[in-house]
Amino acid sequence: MARAGLRVGAVWGAAGWCAAAALALGACSGSGDNARTAPVEASGDGTLRIGLILDNTGPQSFLNAAQLAAAKLAVQEINAAGGHKGRPVELLPVTTGADAAAQARKLADARADVVIGPTDSSRAPAAIDVLSKARTTLISPANTAPELTSYKSGGYYFRTAAADIAQAPVMVKLARDAGAKSLAVVYEDGTYGQAVSAAVSASAKAGGLDPVTVSGFKAGEAQKSAAAARDAAPDAVVVLARDGAQGAIAELTNAGLPGNKLILGDGAFRQYGSALGSKSLDGARALVPGVFPSAHFQAELVAIDAGLKDTTFAAETYDAVNLAALAAAAAEDDAGASIAGTLISVSGGTSGSRASAPPSGQPAVCSTYKDCLAAIRDGKAIDYDGESGPVRFDANGDVTAARYMVFTYGADNKAKLTGSEAAGRSAG
Known about the structure:
The protein is an alpha/beta fold.
């Protein structure tokens, strides 16, 4: 989307939050071995080294620039505030490529204490396996696959991107706000569609939208699902798809379902324009994870990279770097194990373990490294709320708050930003 010279891209990838997040956003139970909770003995060398795994290639390669610019900006600001223990934080040399494991090995060999990335959820396990063995913390600004919540990382894996299943109650809210009392869900078969459709269905029923009709389809074969949605005569239709999104929307139009009944999940969001029939999406709404970057943040990113055209994952990357540096500051140690053990508390989250309890008292909410560092030096607990909003890691290293942009389509099948919504639950 063009605004202030930068385009906001949709977040792509399979995702999942725990089912309770979709059902009234209750607390999740987590596996205790996926986020370090016990304090560890300091073992750093005094220099905080941060690496990046940039795994976007081909059509998605544009995503690398925003993450790199955001990481550079965060490190620049951290160092302007005194760095880590008076020493400059180092951003290790960056390479790009789809082999996340190879990049992880290279960064481990370069003595990285924390690594930011990868983007693609399918490449996360390989990077986790390498870096957890090296006792290096990994924070992804983009991973959203459901299985990563329980992937065994030894406590070294976190992510600042909300899992896509968190959008379920938000889509239901959009439907209810428009007066809907019944709902149909049309989803593309696959991990993404199955996980999010189940969450939408559960959230809708919990919210009183009943009946709920759910129908899956294979890409290019959405006609039967569109017919099932039409026959159910719902007040609203949620569309969950990626590759098959355009075909599904076309079939829904052919079935006589108007655009103002449609709510598109993040995977289906794009500027369709003339690719669809006239007014196919007129009045449809779509969700995009995150918040539109402030003019100030955009200007800072452009100052780092004058050619930047897209800000996707920039806020999540910026926050990941700041959280890592704040964890090192709170632990007074730059080693990966210490960072992993302190990330939950500096994010404002809770692990459920007294062993990792932060300083007592109400956490000081802060949004910059400089301000948070001052609070830490004053002996206060902190709650870092950055450019992407509140983070508040849980015991699995997942965020417990999520923010979404709402886009509304016009008669030209192009979407404009029209609002924002939040989904969240108490950390823990």
